[in-house]
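Below sits my pick:
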Amino acid sequence: MGIPVERWRALVNFGRNLRWRTRCRRPRNDEEVLRLLQEHRSEHIRAIGSLHSWSEIAQVSGITLDMREFADVRPYANKVQVGAGCTLERLLERLEEINARTLPTMGVIKRQTVSGIISTATHGSGESSLSHFVTALRIAAYDEDGQPKVFDYRDGDELRAARCALGRMGVILSIEFSTVPAYRVRETIRIVDRVEDALALYRHHPLTQFALVPYAWKVVAWGRHKMPPGQSGSCPIRAALFRALNVILIDFLFHASLRACLLLGSFATKGLMKTMPWLLKPLANIPRVDAAEHVLTLNHHWFTHEEMEMFIPSSKVVAAAQLLRNAIEISAGHDASIPPDIESQLRAQGLYDELMQLRGRYVHHYPVNFRIVLPDDALVSMTGSSNADWFSCSLFTYHRPGRRKGFYDLCSWCAHAMHMLFGARLHWGKHYPQRLDSTATARMYPNLDRFRHLCRKVDPNGVFRNDFTDRVLGTG
């Protein structure tokens, strides 16, 4: 049986900020992938998953490989081999069914494919990213003579490069993850006044994440930690009630209300943000214990949105949060008291006047989310090549695609300022402002040259490049 026919497809990503037409093929096994690499060796090739990225990482003018047929899940001992096109949701379900195990960490969205997850170092809170827990990879690429070949990476810099490679190391066929026994998480919502108060929770609640709420300027913290093995501590009725409340109140009603407020104008969106901490008060300080998957994941895919995520060294997170608050206030037309030391740094970088030009041009309408992410053993993951912990901080917009210019302007300034002042790195799969190019990337990632060298070894003709990787990684 031959390879499925080539079809032209119009693709749109989850955030609906990107649309493009491409020639698409859907291989069914390794041999078909290799034949496609041979057939299109003079073009550009990109493999796609669920298209949940907001950056241009999946776009290509050549051939797109739809990898959904690669979805097998094969657990064994304390590991699992999973096909590149399998979703996180299916993987978690199969692990639970077969041997009551799970992944060491998990992203908020379960509809992403595992190949997309590791290609952009998707993460949760309180652990390294999922890329860090990849123990082996099978990838279709090219040998030094330009012939298609399946590579099996199990150690060394090749594995460290392939764990988070933005598609540059080839077409991922399967991934081997380490797994852990299924565990439960205890969560308590707390509403505090300062970022420092939220940070104090990490000593005893290492899976905590928190949100800085604009205009109310309160901090909502979800204090979380794993329950010890054999210790349940759960009340099934309370766990079921919290599941229902999260789905109804947070996943649906809050985001539906936000969409309605965006139609009504800035007064309504500011009002919703000011009241959000008080709306959550009935749930505050009530602990719940549930399976990790039900605590750590949400249904954010129900409402189209776009996100930019920046990674800041943990030692800089308080100053970074203050800078983001100042930028949001000024962008909304409010007065803001910028700390003198931060103001002097902004002026030295030529960023102060640029910030003032944003005044009154955009009302940000969503909490700024913070999660702690431990270092990764990967060459160009956002927390790789580091011995320190990082905090990710995310800016979201729920505006329709045609109304996001103000968000993009704010993101462009924030990304550049956070990079210049705090050494911030940006998530590869999320909104990635044009002003951050390969020169900025070289400052962020000390192993970039080594990564480029390994990419050239398995892709001597640049088949796996696209415009986005050229911009952020360079063509070297």
